[in-house]
DNA sequence: GACCGTACCGTACATCGTACGGCTCGGTTA
DNA sequence: TAACCGAGCCGTACGATGTACGGTACGGTC
């Protein structure tokens, strides 16, 4: 980097870019949209760190600096990538509300959709987003995910809190999943392989007398998952607990 | 980077480094420990991206490449940073179990301790850790945090799952907190300032007819937090729901 | 046919992790 | 004492990165 991490000093510029109408391509066919799509393809295929201005430009067969005509900088590009990816989620705004099982079914659907999104685009988890993106698709997502929580006895702030809780949980377990997959690919070693190769080493170094519970539970979990942890199990187990807790909250609101 | 992100092809090397006894300093006083401490100081003060081999070496008044005599590479260094930071948590292994309020009080204590840790060392949230660190302090932490869950009717795997759920939640909300603080510092703009400067822009672009619930709830939450979200509120609200859900699980185990 | 704004892009700079090869010591042996 | 050797230390170099800056070349309007 040249200097600081300036972030965008001008939020209006970002907003205009996010909500702005599609501009006409210039003489080399370059568009904001084409740049964003190329960046997403790169990130999907090779991970976020493969998305450099040079790589994106190469893919578009264009000079590196030409990108800066359409996009102020890389942070704005990643913002655009995120909002564009969110666009895949809800073609029908009322899809979550239409799920069977009331609010609980809807939240399970929302969790699953977000989980799938992170599976398709793991790079979304590695972007350090200062503030929320506030693009059109992010707003649509917010609307779609709030609707099934409307009118079931929660206050506005509680609706937002419940949704945030679910999304934080999904994001956390998805991050675990993505990191494990990434590492598996980098090292060329399966988690199971890693586990069996590290278990004896660990046993030698962790004595069961000093760490009785940890060694017992770690052993059980390790055998259960054939790894240090299981993201999918963490997702469903955690979601079940959270939804039970939310049910308690709603029941409390119903009978005050 | 020169080539790939090789990660550590040899896990045994990392383990030896983590559990290895302290080595004697050479003729310039350089030690694994001194390197790790310098790196942590840098990260605490200036963020994770300020931790470069050159910066660490400069702080120790030593040539850059001298670090590689003691530490195989940067990934191993960050592993060591993490395990060292974990060492701050539980001087007394039985501290969590000693909390009032049974398992629930203990879990609240654990959540708070981890939250504080991330406040002190926000860089821990930005390290992309492929696999868990498995150092001595990480193991101690695992033991200390599992003990209050032992013997209350949960299976081994359930104990691990409950703990992971709590920790994922804390990490998620702490990441939110850290990102917001970071951005606030980078842009020199308070979240409140950002909110009041973006609210009118957003109103102009998000029409309440297309996004009725989102605009209403977003407005309420924004006014409540004077920001897009409130990490501390998310922490306590989410923790309460989760603990309620865990209570349900335990109750179900008690009366089958 | 002249002009001009905009799209495009080549070069340069500071920064990164680390491979490689050389230097300089402290301690052991002949 | 002299020779030697391994380990600690480090200077240089390479290929990356984001982007500031200044230049080129083109499409559309008079």
TrEMBL record, chains A, B:
Pfam families under this entry? TetR_C_1, TetR_N
Instruction: Please list the GO biological process terms of this entry.
Output: negative regulation of DNA-templated transcription
DNA-binding annotation, residue ranges on this chain: 52-71
Using the record's annotation, list all stretches that form the HTH tetR-type domain.
29-89
Q: Which InterPro entries match?
A: Homeodomain-like_sf, HTH-type_TetR-like_transc_reg, HTH_TetR, Repressor_TetR_C, Tet_transcr_reg_TetR-rel_C_sf
Coiled coil regions in record: none
Top-level taxon in the UniProt lineage:
Bacteria
Q: Name one GO molecular function term.
A: transcription cis-regulatory region binding
The identity of this protein, by name, is Transcriptional regulator, TetR family
Keyword Cytoplasm in annotation: no
Please tell me whether the keyword DNA-binding is annotated for this protein.
yes
Instruction: Give the keywords, sorted.
Output: DNA-binding, Transcription, Transcription regulation
């Amino acid at each position: 980097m040249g200097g600081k991490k300036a972030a965008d000093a001008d939020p209006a510029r970002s907003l205009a870019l996010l909500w702005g109408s599609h501009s006409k391509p210039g003489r080399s066919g370059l568009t904001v949209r084409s740049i964003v799509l190329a960046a997403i393809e790169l990130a999907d295929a090779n991970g976020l760190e493969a998305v450099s201005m040079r790589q994106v430009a190469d893919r578009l067969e264009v000079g590196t600096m030409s990108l800066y005509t359409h996009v102020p900088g890389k942070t704005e590009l990643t913002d655009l990538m995120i909002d564009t990816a969110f666009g895949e989620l809800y073609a029908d705004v009322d899809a979550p509300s239409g799920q069977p099982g009331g609010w609980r079914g809807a939240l399970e659907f929302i969790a699953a959709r977000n989980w799938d999104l992170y599976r398709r685009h793991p790079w979304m988890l590695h972007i350090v987003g200062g503030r929320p993106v506030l693009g059109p698709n992010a707003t649509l997502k917010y609307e779609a995910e709030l609707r099934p929580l409307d009118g079931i006895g929660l206050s506005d702030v509680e609706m937002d809190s419940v949704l945030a809780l679910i999304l934080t949980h999904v994001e956390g377990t998805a991050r675990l999943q993505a990191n494990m997959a990434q590492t598996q690919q980098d090292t060329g070693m399966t988690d199971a392989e890693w586990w069996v190769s590290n278990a004896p080493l660990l046993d030698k170094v962790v004595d069961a007398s000093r760490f009785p519970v940890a060694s017992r539970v770690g052993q059980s979990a390790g055998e259960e998952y054939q790894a240090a942890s299981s993201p999918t199990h963490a997702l469903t187990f955690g979601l079940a607990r959270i939804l039970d807790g939310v049910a308690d909250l709603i029941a409390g609101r119903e009978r005050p």
